[in-house]
Design brief:
Elements (H helix, E strand, L loop, with lengths): L2 E5 L3 H10 L4 E3 L14 E5 L4 H6 L7 E9 L3 H8 L5 H4 L3 E8 L8 E6 L5 E11 L3 E8 L2 E11 L5 E9 L5 E2 L2 E2 H24 L12 H11 L1
Antiparallel strand pairs: 1-3, 2-3, 4-10, 5-6, 6-7, 7-8, 8-9, 9-10, 11-12
Helix pairs in contact: 3-5
């Protein structure tokens, strides 16, 4: 049976936890405000048991985050066409063992994408699509090794043509070390390789005569772009 209780914890963390567990919820007290006062309470109506949320919310307070971007000559709709074709993903990274949709239509909210990777350890990721506007943005929740990760990808048209593809992710570092390496380091390295190769593919599709070599953004470029988006 659904439950309804007052939870004295940050609503932001409650919402993130609910989304990460694919739990349906609604705010009964009032529409969601632009910003939540720290430590405020929210009346939450959950389809699943709330005690699990109350027990875990303290562990969800610390999030790790990373950001990355690439610029491609391809317009947003072409960049999305390439991004959404999962059969191309093994071209962007050698870590994939198997990629398949296991529930729903591809890239629809609520659909699930199962990804089996071979390194640094064999692991299966469960992608749950939480938002998709083709050619504009897409987001998902991942679960693996006790870690929940929320990632967004934005496709931003550039004034002179082409697309800035920006991604960011927040995750709980339940397992800080994987094969002796920091989880965040592995994710950042994978993201950098994946999106650089993706951008090369987009450039070639936009103009086969282009030199496919893509200059990787420097840390200074990344920092400057992050500051401009803050």
């Amino acid at each position: 049976m659904p439950v309804c209780q007052i939870v004295n914890a940050s609503p932001t963390h409650i919402i993130r936890h609910a989304r990460s567990q694919c739990v349906a919820f609604s705010c009964l007290a009032a529409p969601l405000p632009q910003a939540w006062p720290a430590g405020s309470a929210i009346r939450v109506h959950l389809v699943e048991s709330l005690p699990r949320c109350r027990k875990d919310v303290a562990a969800m307070r610390k999030f790790e985050r990373f950001d990355y971007f690439v610029v491609t000559q391809a317009p947003p709709i072409l960049a999305w066409k390439i991004f959404s074709d999962c059969s191309l993903w093994p071209h962007f990274s050698q870590l994939y063992e198997d990629i398949r949709w296991t529930k729903g239509l591809p890239w629809q909210e609520g659909s699930r994408l199962s990804i089996r990777a071979r390194a640094p350890i064999e692991i299966t990721l469960d992608h749950v699509i939480i938002c998709c506007v083709p050619g504009e943005k897409v987001a998902w929740i991942d679960h693996a090794l006790g870690t929940a990760l929320e990632q967004w990808v934005h496709f931003e048209p550039q004034p002179g043509g082409g697309t800035l593809v920006r991604t960011w992710a927040e995750f709980t570092e339940a397992v800080p070390l994987v094969a002796g390496r920091q989880m965040k380091d592995i994710l950042v390295e994978f993201t950098r390789e994946w999106y650089n190769n993706f951008a090369r593919e987009c450039n070639q599709a936009a103009d086969p005569t282009l030199n496919a070599a893509l200059k990787e953004p420097t840390p200074q470029d990344q920092a400057a772009r992050h500051d401009s988006l803050a």
